Model the fold of this input.
Amino acid sequence: MTGMSIRSKLRRSWPGYVFLTPWLIGFFLLSIFPILASLYLAFTDYDAVNAPVWVGFENFQYMFEFDYRFWQSLKVTFLFVILSVPAKLIFALIVAMLLDKGIRAVGWYRALFYLPSILGGSIAVAILWRQLFNADGVINSALAVFGIQGPYWLSDPNYSLYTLVVLAIWQFGSPMLIFLAGLRAIPQDLYEAAEIDAATPSRKFFAITVPMLAPVIFFNLVLQMIEAFKSFSGAFIISGGTGAPLDSLLFFTVYLFNEAFSYFRMGYASALGWVLLVIIAAFTAIAFWTSKYWVHYENERG
Amino acid sequence: MSTFNRRKFLGTAAAAAGSAAILSATGTSAFAQDRRIRHFWWGNPERDKRTFEVIRLFNEKNPGIVVAGETLGSADYFTRLTTQIAGRNMADAIQMGYGVMFEYINRGAILPLDEYIGKSLDISQIDESALSAGRVDGKLYALSIGANSHVSLYNTRLFDAAGISFDPFGWTYDDLKRVAGEVTKATGVFGTDDNTADYQNFSDYVHQRGERLFDDEGNFGASAETIADYFAIWADLRAAGATPPGQVSAGLVGAELSNWGIVTGQTAISYAWSNQMVGVQNLMQDKVGAAMFPNTPEMIPGSIIQPSQFICLSRDTVDAEAATTYMSAFVNDPEMTAVLGLERGIPANAQVRAALQPKLTEIEATSVAFFDGIQGKTMNLAPPPPSGAQEIEAMFERVAVAVLLDQAPIPDVANQIRREAEGIRRRAR
Amino acid sequence: MTDVTSNRLADLTAVSAQLRADRAVRAKRAAMLKHVFLIAASFVMIYPLLWMVASSLKPNNEIFGQLGLIPSDPQWSNYTSGWNALPVSFTNFFWNSAVVTVLSVIGNVISCSFAAYAFARLEFSGKTIWFALMMMTLMIPYHVVLIPQYLTFLQLGWVNTYLPLVVPRFLASDAFFIFLMIQFFRQLPRELDEAAMIDGCSPFKIYWAIILPLSLPAMTTAAIFSFIWTWEDFLGPLVYLNDIKDYTVPLALRMFLSQDSVSEFGQMFAMSVLSILPIILFFVIFQRFIIRGIAMSGMK
Done:
């Protein structure tokens, strides 16, 4: 009996494993050791110069009991995720829908709207950001035209995080493009049918677009959330690598990077990394669990 | 075809374009029996060109040894270095900065040079002060490749317009208040950058007050009173309108020099390391002048002359003798040092300095004149900073911002700095 | 066919003609509004590029003192001198970047679509666990695995070659793309596979002849991201490439900046402008493949 079922299992499984082979090779050859090693290092005192020394849960104990900057970095990161992810997704979806239909020269628009995301990785733009948001920079000069005295966007801890959120939203290019690809995958005849039924645009949106786009919305939600939790470059560049002013931009990964590469605490940084991993995994798991109720896939319909 | 290996195929898709000089400098033309060493530094286009030229000269003069140059911008240097240390794969000769170098020495990433002195390594012409800066526990770990000191850089056009006269080598904080006020009044440009959260200026002030930044046990030595007084000096200047508003200055703590007040034209004085003078001048149209940091009326020296950069022997060296031969030539060889010039700072070899004198640019001459001016007015180099010193510097700049933003009373911030410094030292032990 | 039905047909045609006309008017008005909005937004989007181009034409001592965009005396020489400012010319860096990027795009699209097909359309035991592990590689902070990863590649003898940058791409190392493709593959009607299976198609045939062609938008999106992210990546090249001849463009750009000496900002901006041209070009050419899945709606 068991022999039969194993054989049938094998017969059923082998095409899947064939297609998974490249990933499996990569995972076992290149990924699994670094992941396990970082887990091990989380329980050690390791300065990257000398061999790691096992310290048990000391790193975690210090983190939770004494390290107020750890808690600060969690606070900053959560705020960033909560503020930037929904706004960025909504913005990306609106623009994608505008670009999806009826506009000539749409290719150039698309490139334009993608531009901030392309430039976001450039060191040149890091310099620009500072110039834009300086006290007497371009933004405040523009506001002054309307008689508004702009705040100190980057050097006032009350504003700095919001400035960064705005910059993150501004780089909505990749979720936008994914939404666009998703919209293109919705069969057009559904809309034509609705048109004949004289459905309102909002009805079409909620009855056709949202359900059909749900897998893509889900993807963008999960990925943007993960990326936001791991967000590094923007805060690192704008704060000069430190999370300044007054730790208002102390993103979790910025703190982690400094512990690892500035202060010789690779072990502690690994512990930080695994705490972040657990947090992200928990939120992702929640997202997957709720997706049962709102994301339906074509190939799983009865 | 045997030489057409994987490394060549994937590694150098580039060979088509590089000039022959660079190819030999990066080591491509080596023979199998050559002793190969690597030199890793942080640079910029100018420094990279000069250093590769030096490597080419060395390789030409020393058949049998092939040096390969590796370079990155300073922002990325330590990320790669840390990775290579962990992999036991560091270059043979590495560049280090004063301060962070001692962390690497304490942890054993850098080897002492003593056994090569008089053999492959010649230090007979090097200033004793430069040598002592590279010593820990009586062992020599590093060769200075350029001396450095704190400098106040001022915009000469604005100073002339305001008719300022002051002694650049003996001015006090009261003078600074007067000068900055006059400049602000006459030109409408803020008199000075706000150094409330500048650790370099702070450390000068601590010594000027007769205290030490770290005592013999490595404890943080600045008293709460001194910290508070330091903040008060700048609070006065700020209140008098001689600096930009605190919130503006808060955004400039630790900023790159392109953001400094003197460069953007927002202020008339910015504070720097002397080897940054050339870089600042390059970004400005007005001429730059140089003065020491201000002092107290007692004029106790607080500034130091310290190497800006060192060349060190890494623990991963594959051929220490070849590496030290190269390091020796790097600081002594007349042709090689002539190519390097003042680009990394003032050389520690007296003969080299004399040889460079006639060929200086205007701003380089200003920096050499500044160095002549500060002789005898600086303090002796303190013992190497203890582990955690780097982190204390960053902590100071982080916490002091609360003063700039008026978020906490000065005495509270002073006490917090002392507490945090103690915590960092405990953790570093 | 009776009269009644033909009448009703005529009615319907009239109604639908009216509907179409109404739609045309509404569409025109909406399009106008959209254009105004898009043009305004476009300026916000394009400003950084304008600023970069403007700065690339300024001499060093003008970039930070003045806010205006127009350079007093355009320094076109920043482009020529910047090209050769580093010890190795930018011809090298662009070529290196092109090699790494093209290989990475090919690797990503092939290997990730393989894995995604397995996860999205095939049943096999252990699927849930593998999927969870794959998602985990996406969540771990990069800096924590940087050193262990370096040690792995050092063991393999791959450091100072392009192998650490390219080989993982052929082994589906980037879970982002796998997950992206999974989401699109799962959207395709299941009847497709079933019909093909009944016709005797193997899973490989289905992957190649049905799933891939129908997923052109997703594949294009993945290729575009893959291109941009590889082109802009600097942490990988930073750690794995020692030899300046092997550097990629982003790494070279960072060599212009110096904290303790002269930074050549004008040249850096000039080369930055050139460095984004390939990305924009790739984007504009390939984004047109994000098209409607005509074939699919016909099949339903």
The beta strands of chain A are 44-45, 53-54. The longest helix of chain A spans residues 2-41. Chain A is about 75% helix and 0% strand. Chain A has a mean pLDDT of 88.
